[in-house]
Amino acid sequence: MSRIHVLTPRLANQIAAGEVVERPASVVKELVENALDAGASRIEVDVEQGGAKLVRIRDNGGGIDEADLSLALSRHATSKIQDLDDLESVSSLGFRGEALASISSVSRLSLTSRVPESEAAWRVEVEGRDMDARLSPAAHPVGTTVEVRDLFFNTPARRKFLRAEKTEFNHIEEGLRRQALSRFDVGFSLRHNQKPLFSQRPADSQVDQERRIASLCGTRFIENAVMIDNEASGLRLWGWVALPTFSRSQADLQYFFVNRRVIRDRLVAHAVRQAYRDVLYNNRHPAFVLYLELDPANVDVNVHPTKHEVRFRDGRLVHDFIFRSLHRALAQVRPADHLPGNH
Ligand code: ADP
Ligand code: MG
Prior knowledge:
Blueprint: H1 9-20, H2 24-37, E1 42-48, E2 54-59, H3 69-72, H4 84-88, H5 99-105, E3 108-114, E4 121-127, E5 134-138, E6 143-149, H6 156-159, H7 165-182, E7 187-192, E8 195-200, H8 206-217, H9 219-223, E9 225-232, E10 235-242, E11 254-258, E12 261-262, H10 266-276, E13 288-293, E14 299-300, E15 311-312, H11 315-331
Parallel strand pairs: 1-7, 11-13
Antiparallel strand pairs: 1-2, 2-6, 3-4, 3-6, 4-5, 7-8, 9-10, 10-13, 11-12, 14-15
The structure holds adenosine-5'-diphosphate and magnesium ion (MG).
Adenosine-5'-diphosphate (ADP) binds next to α2 and α5.
């Protein structure tokens, strides 16, 4: 008797969902990435009960054509890459074609969208259970709204792992803060249980950018930071680094973006730590908002499903460039400003 069988699509998606959808904040992250990839200039995030009851993301991006709506929910369905060459120089945030399939397998999901070429909007709905998509006409301006209700309603074991509403919401807020810092040219708003938490208009000038940083990271950070912008060997590092006098007891104000992608990377962390080594006590942590830009072909983003990690083609070069850029910027600060005991 044969013992091996192919998993149903639903079960396969639910297993994959374990990697992509850890908690409501992961849903927000994936859906906001989709909105950014769709070219939205305005993204509204609404959540209820820490996202466990509802996550709704509305964007004014390019929308999804009626013919593609159900396909968007299928696993490995993406409009972003075609072949391996595309993957090697991917510039979109998404490319795995997994998020919507995974999220819809563990929630009640609806996707409403309209493309600029069409007068009408369409909605597709799925309910975890059978993955049968229902398509119906709807009203919606150009762009997309995705509603995710009752996350993990059909996977009770995972639902049990959800933390208190406040904790889940904090994760959402922190994630969206990172995304709002990653794209000054896009407006973001966040509401929890109908209450507005923040609303950021697109920030074009440096003044507007610093205003956004002040509201997301605190005025004291921006008042104590210097702006840097350095370019060499096809690499550019720019952003704001806090003077050593504004060091932190925790590594809680450290934002690093690679090609506008939010990342956590040991090589980057090491380079930054080295640059601050002479000016900070060991137990103090620097604060920074930094953007590294390089040719997408020189960085591999397909390391992990959540895409938090990257691999640089020439890690040594990147490490030294970050170290030198920061070291120089910190050395230019008047010596009296950065005596470690001076805070
Ligand atoms: P990926 O982002 O890796 O392509 P997703 O499952 O997140 O995979 O999305 C599948 C596809 O659905 C995308 O490639 C895109 O074509 C479409 N899509 C999803 N969200 C949006 C959106 N907000 N606006 C326009 N298209 C979208
Ligand atoms: Mg995606």
